[in-house]
Amino acid sequence: MDDTLEQVILVDREDREIGHADKLPAHRFGYLHRAVSICIVDDHGRMLLQRRAPEKYHSAGLWTNACCSHPRPGEATDKAALRRLPEELGFSCPLFWKAHTHYRANVGADLIEDEFVHLFVGRYNGEVQPDPREVDNVSWLTYDFLSSDILSNPGNYTYWFRHYMTVFGKKLFEIPEF
Question: Considering the domain boundaries, does residue 133 fall inside one?
Answer without folding.
Answer: no
